[in-house]
Amino acid sequence: MALLEIQRVTRAFDGVLAVNEVSFQMDEGETVSIIGPNGAGKTTLFNLITGLDRPDQGDIRFNGESLIDLPPHEYARRGLARTFQHGRVFGNLSVLDNVLLGAHSRRRATQVRSPWLHLARELFDGLFWPSRARQEEQALRAEAEAILAQFGERLLPRLHQPAYSLSYANRRRVEIARALLLRPRLLLLDEPTAGMNPAETAEMLAFLESLKARGQTILLIEHKLSLVMKLSDRVVVMDEGRIIAEGAPEVVRSDPRVIEAYLGHRHAGQALAASAEDDTAQPLVASLTDERIREEMT
Amino acid sequence: MESFVRTFSDQTINGLVIGNIYAFIAVGLALIFGVGNLINFAHGSVFMVGAYVGWVCMTWWNLPLAVAFVAVALICALIGVIIERFALYPLRNAPPIAPLLATIGVSFMIDQAVQLLFSRNPHAFPNPLIEHRFQIGGVTVSAIDLLIAGVGVAAALTLYAFLRFTRWGWALRATAQDREAALQMGVNVNAVNRMTFAIAAALGGIAGLLVGMYFNTVYPTMSFQATFKGFAAVVLGGLGNVPGAVLGGLLLGLIESYGVAIFGATYRNLFAFVILIAVLVWRPNGLFSLKPRVMQEPLTGTFIAKGRPVPTPGWLIATLIGVALILPILVPNPYLLQILTNAWLLGMVALSVTLVTGTAGQTSLGQAGFMAIGAYASALLMLRLGWPFELSMVGAAFISATLGTLLVFPAFRLRAVYIAIATLAIGEIVNQVILNWESLTNGAMGIAGLTPPSFFGWQMIRPHEMYYFSLVLLCIAALVQWRLVRSPLGRTWRSLREDEIAAQAFGVNLNRYKTLAFGVAAWIAGLSGAVTGHMYTYISHETFTNTTSILALTMVILGGMGNLLGAIVGAVALTALPEIFRGLADYRYLVYGLTLLLVIRFRPQGLLGTD
């Protein structure tokens, strides 16, 4: 059985089909990347998988269980952890507290199913700091520091600094560390290298490769194709809400539809010429230029 | 049957006339919300100033009514521009809760200034119109009714023509629709903002003048009710929707008029608050919008400035407690001790505010409601059930925690400024229920003859006894809160303050942790209310008002959000300083308002910093 099953999922905003009948599957241990031009529906799909948004149609199953009727806070308990496209660290919390929050759904107090017992337990633990709660906190803290240590000296010296004082790249690292402390069965990363320079990107690639080597299942949205091609077992290409190609990186890379829709840097001139006759080519050209600017900047 | 029809039609006329005035207030609020995305709490104060300007014109200078109208419109427009320029323009890049709090500060200052100029007592407002009643189809209509209707229709048509056909009107609508795009197209959005405030304030002032004439009286406290009635009308019609605001105003007037006819006059103010909360929670886009519009909401729900707390080492805390302990021996001045006792009890309320607002990020302006519940619960447990004070006080705290959380629960889905408004309304509803539930609460009479606090036979009568008792309670509350916010629970609370969506993605059940925050806060505030009630020996629905709630929030902002020591420092500063510098006591609300304005503008992280 597949770990994640997306079944004919559709989501529209004001009549625009952001995600249109998308289906795909992921197995445990796989690393899958979703690529596609801006506005292809990648982040919308991510939001649907993580419960931030609800599909209009279709089903999303995780470990055999349908997710779409669960409240958003239940997703973490199932083992889904994500990072956000534009970064959502807790600005006024320290680096360590940011990461520790990732373990929220692992703490024993939060495992209590009855709402009132859960709250009573939180209150009791918060007031009296019993030794079991302190031990749990210490163990999580050690684990958090071990995860942060994997980023070398990037974050360890800044454990007690507030997250708002971090660089953009360091905030991304904090987000990833926070997601890892959940011990996710599926890690969803939304553009983890956005805003990173080539050296930092290479460092992130090495980090993700080490995660993959340890068997972590990863679903990745990424614009930097070299990273995608090196890391992924499988690549899913989206355009205008649909999956237009899917397969091993080298297969996808040579797929003519993908070249046309996405890898068309060298064909941009032709596309421009085509756009004089065909209006639909316009957004494609726009997204390609956007893509090129993005690559040149980073 | 005929008399019923007559009453009904009279109530309808009545409701439409009052509704017309609400519509005036609401249109101004809706314009300001639409253009500036801002909730203007000073609007009612401008309304009140309008009433006083009209009163001065007509009673001091005997000017004709038409001149009074022009004078009111001009002076209020000027005040509107001044408010925009000096209180709000500097905050244009701050989170939306900052300008909201600034307008509260402004309203404190205007209200107190008017009180100082004209005394706090009501003045009779002459009706310059001939007292003439017309019979139209079996309905009695007076001249003032017709005047209000006429002014209302004329103002609506003028405003419509202005927005529809003039360049400035276009600029205003463009700015309301998309501020950035308007700016790009060369619209001077700051000038548009100022103009919007001028128009809104002029309309508000005229409404004040009309209300003064209609009820034949003006008084300084008419401002708060006006803000809230106007705001309820705006919410009914859909935030920022100008025609909706007119309909909302008329509808609110009718509901009140029929409601008063059915339930009685003391219920008048309850309807607006209940409507306000119900609409905010269940139809946040108003009654008249078919498709839900996305509310413009910031991602963080409170007024949290970036920054780190000023370090407070243990020896400093110990020294402060030591000073507080020996103070009655060093300075055995009963007056000073009484003031500090008040500061300790209000400090508990400030702690409770800093828990929900500073730590958990849910801006609360309803904390006095929890105090009122605690005070009444303790009084009733003692008087009706014969509980001793030690038990009734603790019981009251639990009742406050339970009832308070249940009352706020429907508002948990609201964020940012909306939770602030909802909690303010909840505080008012508590007092309105106390006023009207006579069989339980003795209604407007209040409950007298409460025995002073006693603790296992120790009667606290002398000032230093109350001082120590409240100091100990404050220290216990602070200790409890310190343990909680330093634990993983505190981390979880802070995470929902910083970013609810990210917290939720990591499994934080928002409702449960908000319940816990409000529960603990209402427990502490309820305890403070119970002790305060017994200390005063008399409580009524006017003992714990929204002013106390706003004061508690001001203390917290002054001290630093989420900062426990900051809350207590803020409480001492704002309670004790105006009393110690005796000259300031008469100007205390001026001091509070100015403090709020200055801190938000120049030190948003507060004296001791956000924690």
TrEMBL record, chain A:
InterPro entries noted in UniProt: AAA+_ATPase (IPR003593), ABC_AA/LPS_Transport (IPR051120), ABC_transporter-like_ATP-bd (IPR003439), BCA_ABC_TP_C (IPR032823), P-loop_NTPase (IPR027417)
GO cellular component, one term: plasma membrane
Keyword Transport listed: yes
CDD domains, A to Z: ABC_Mj1267_LivG_branched (cd03219)
Keywords, in A-Z order: ATP-binding, Nucleotide-binding, Transport
ABC transporter domain sequence ranges: 4-265
GO BP field: D-alanine transmembrane transport; L-alanine transport; L-isoleucine import across plasma membrane; L-valine import across plasma membrane
GO MF terms held by the record: ATP binding; ATP hydrolysis activity; L-isoleucine transmembrane transporter activity; L-phenylalanine transmembrane transporter activity; L-valine transmembrane transporter activity
Listed PROSITE patterns: ABC_TRANSPORTER_2
Pfam family, one: ABC_tran
PANTHER family linked to this entry: AMINO ACID ABC TRANSPORTER ATP-BINDING PROTEIN, CONSERVED COMPONENT OF ABC TRANSPORTER FOR NATURAL AMINO ACIDS-RELATED
UniProt-recorded name of the protein: ABC transporter ATP-binding protein
Originating species: Caldilinea aerophila
Automatic annotation (TrEMBL), chain B:
Keyword list, A-Z: Cell membrane, Membrane, Transmembrane, Transmembrane helix
Gene Ontology MF terms: branched-chain amino acid transmembrane transporter activity
Regions annotated as coiled coil: none
Membrane disposition: Multi-pass membrane protein
One Pfam family it belongs to: BPD_transp_2
Tagged with keyword Plastid: no
Chief subcellular location: membrane
Keyword Aminoacyl-tRNA synthetase attached: no
Compartment(s) of residence: Cell membrane
Cellular component GO terms, alphabetical: plasma membrane
Record-annotated membrane-spanning stretches: 12-35, 41-61, 68-91, 139-163, 195-219, 231-255, 261-282, 314-331, 337-356, 391-409, 416-435, 466-485, 516-539, 551-577, 589-608
PANTHER family registered for this protein in UniProt: HIGH-AFFINITY BRANCHED-CHAIN AMINO ACID TRANSPORT SYSTEM PERMEASE (PTHR30482), HIGH-AFFINITY BRANCHED-CHAIN AMINO ACID TRANSPORT SYSTEM PERMEASE PROTEIN LIVM (PTHR30482:SF20)
Name of the protein: ABC transporter permease
Organism: Caldilinea aerophila
